[in-house]
Amino acid sequence: MTPINTQDYSIYFNKDTYKALNEHLSATNYSKIFFIVDENTNADCIPFVLANIETEISYDVLEIESGEENKNLDICLGLWEALSEHGADRKSLIINIGGGVITDLGGFVASTFKRGISFINIPTSLLAMVDASIGGKTGIDLGHLKNQIGVINTAEMVLIDTAFLSTLPENQMRSGLAEMLKHGLIADKAYWNKFLDLSKLTTEDLDTLIYESILIKKNIVAQDPKEENLRKTLNYGHTLGHAIESYYLSNENKTSLLHGEAIAVGMILASYISTKLTGLNEATNQEIKSTILDTFSKVTFEEEDYNPIIELLIYDKKNEHGNIHFVLLEDIGKPVLDCKVSNELIIEAFKFYAS
């Protein structure tokens, strides 16, 4: 696959990844390499990466525990201290090997250590490949509130090796599909249509879909890197999706949802709201709901869950001047920005989801 070039970095695929990495390492003067991994990627992925790196630069492996609950300031503090103790300086390189938690957190650690050192992302989950590792967003959660602390800072390069997907459990694969479905809904009806019957997809098809999904996000980010306008469309389904994810993460009576599982719910809710506010037709709304639920199991909500989830919306990063802004759809591929939605309509959407 042809590398995807952005203004600041390039994204390499499969057989080209390690050649590109080795050329980059030989052309730069890094003092030391630090790999940030979790226990899964330390066991399943880093041996393969190390076997394909050709460099005399010394390295250390820094392992954190997997899971969204570890995407916090305490883990960052531990990593900053480990970097200092192991002699990291401003010419050191961090290579993040993992899913969205690792690339978000590792990118933030690199961007803030000694006012910023270089980092490379090697995403190993589908979600990280098509979304988290692309576009320069780095950050951590504030308690159970998603992505409240962070900076936009791009990696030196992103290396996509889809062979790592074979290490993923099924629910993690589904989680990544949510972001790919979103890319179709906000940007490309033809791309969305490719997901209407996933049973026919081959491994080769998946590689192509990943490539096309990354292209969609890259093209949006290139036009609006600081999320002042068009890039907001990438938040489709995320306003309620993040609130749902945070609520389930903080509620000991609930089983935590993966990011994509929560966003899948958020997209169905946003689709229904779109029929009431932005003219999305009912047939398309039903197509969106049925297509998403063909992949994702339905989440059960009680009526007493609605208001606590709605209360969490005030912490959404897209809010301005106290107003909660939604991305909605006029049609597939035609998003509408900065829509205000009443609490009553949100509850109505939850009831539609449950029906």
TrEMBL record:
Record InterPro entries: Dehydroquinate_synthase, DHQ_synth_AroB, DHQ_synth_fam, DHQS/DOIS_N, DHQS_C
Pfam families linked: DHQ_synthase, DHQS_C
MF GO annotations: 3-dehydroquinate synthase activity
Domain 3-dehydroquinate synthase N-terminal, residue spans: 62-174
Gene3D superfamilies in the record: 3.40.50.1970, Dehydroquinate synthase-like - alpha domain
Assigned EC number: 4.2.3.4
Keywords, sorted A to Z: Cobalt, Lyase, Metal-binding, NAD, Nucleotide-binding, Zinc
Cofactor(s) in the UniProt record: Co(2+); NAD(+)
Domain 3-dehydroquinate synthase C-terminal: start-end pairs: 176-319
SUPFAM superfamilies in the cross-refs: Dehydroquinate synthase-like (SSF56796)
Function text: Catalyzes the conversion of 3-deoxy-D-arabino-heptulosonate 7-phosphate (DAHP) to dehydroquinate (DHQ).
Listed name of the protein: 3-dehydroquinate synthase
Source organism: Lacinutrix gracilariae
Name of encoding gene: aroB
